[in-house]
């Protein structure tokens, strides 16, 4: 975490201010962290992918398994954990304008904390470039990456557990198939109470179902 903390401390004041500015705190949305989060999300995904690819055996870790490990490593809960270790809630509190009644609630929201850690990464990338930022990102997310390798999440099981609390069952429906038999891609919708709550695609039905479940979980978290 120290490398990412040091990089953040180097970021110019104006850029650092933008990292910790919520859209509701400014009249110009461009002054908030949204665009930086968009950039940082891509840098985060590439940094983790580039770190994983040469280190995991191709025989054991195909594209599908690598995708699951990366998705778990950079998921909302993982980003929130990194944000808390970096002290984002405290920085957010310090940056809040006087009378911002939503500050406490914002600091406890996974979606906001995850977006801000992405914005941190985006700002560091703009200031220091990819190489230094990627190295810092891999160090910061090391516990989450290790956990994803040792305890992979089954998104389908997790989604069913969540929806069981509402007294329902998720159903997966193949909505489309593309490509020749040897290179087939399946599109799947996760359906709950007669509506689609997530869609995914993959080279097998199981992979597509896992992706649909992952998207559904992100949608539930956002709600």
From TrEMBL:
Gene3D superfamilies: 3.30.160.20, Ribonuclease III domain (1.10.1520.10). GO terms for biological process: mRNA processing; regulation of gene expression; rRNA processing; tRNA processing. PROSITE patterns: DS_RBD (PS50137), RNASE_3_2 (PS50142). Its EC number is 3.1.26.3. Residues 1-129 form the RNase III domain. Mg(2+) binds at residues 115, 118. Pfam families: dsrm, Ribonucleas_3_3. Transmembrane segments: none annotated. Its main location: cytoplasm. Homodimer. Belongs to the ribonuclease III family. This is Ribonuclease 3. It comes from Baekduia soli. The lineage of its organism: Bacteria, Bacillati, Actinomycetota, Thermoleophilia, Solirubrobacterales. The gene is rnc.
């Amino acid at each position: 975490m120290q490398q990412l903390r040091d990089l953040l401390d180097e970021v110019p004041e104006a850029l650092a201010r933008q990292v910790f500015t919520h859209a509701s705190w400014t009249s110009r949305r461009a002054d908030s962290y949204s665009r930086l989060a968009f950039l940082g999300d891509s840098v985060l995904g590439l940094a983790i992918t580039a770190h994983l690819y040469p280190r995991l055996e191709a025989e054991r870790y195909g594209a599908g398994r690598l995708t699951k490990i990366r998705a778990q490593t950079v998921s909302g809960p993982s980003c929130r954990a990194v944000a808390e270790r970096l002290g984002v809630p405290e920085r957010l509190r310090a940056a809040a304008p006087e009378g911002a009644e939503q500050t406490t609630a914002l600091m406890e929201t996974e979606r906001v904390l995850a977006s801000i850690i992405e914005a941190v990464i985006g700002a560091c990338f703009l200031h220091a470039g990819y190489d230094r930022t990627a190295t810092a990102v891999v160090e910061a997310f090391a516990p989450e990456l290790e956990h994803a390798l040792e305890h992979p999440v089954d998104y389908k099981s997790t989604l069913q557990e969540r929806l069981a609390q509402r007294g329902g069952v998720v159903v997966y429906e193949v909505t489309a198939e593309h490509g020749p038999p040897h290179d087939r891609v399946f599109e799947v919708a996760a359906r709950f109470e007669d509506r689609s709550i997530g869609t995914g695609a993959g080279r097998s039905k199981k992979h597509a179902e896992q992706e649909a479940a992952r998207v559904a979980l992100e949608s539930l978290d956002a709600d």
